[in-house]
Amino acid sequence: MSTTYEARLDYRLPGGPFDLCGCHFCANEWLRAMDAIDPDGWRSRINSYAMILCRQCGCKRCPKASYHGHDCTASNESGQHGSVYGDFEIDESWRDDDGDDE
Length: 102
Known about the structure:
This protein is mainly alpha-helical. It has helices at residues 24-37, 42-46, 63-66, and strands at 9-10, 18-19.
C-alpha cells in the first residue's frame, strides 16, 4: 500500500499558484509549478523559501515540517520517520542542477 501525497496549492490566483502550507513537500510542488509557468525563474527566486519549520511546534526536523499531513512530534531529533532529515524523500528530479543550457 502506498501513500498518496497532495500539495496544498491554490491555483485560483492570477500569475500562478499560491502555497497554502509551506511544508517541504508543498514548497517543492510550488517551485515545480512555478518552473513550468516561469522557466526564467524570477518569481520563484523572489518568493523562495527560507528555513522551513513545523507550524505547530517550530522544529525543522519535525515530520509535519516535511509534509503537512504527518503528525507533529514536537521534536528536533534527526532521523525521524517522515522527516526530510530522516526517511521522507521528495522528488526533485524536475530540477535542472547541472547548469548546462544545452
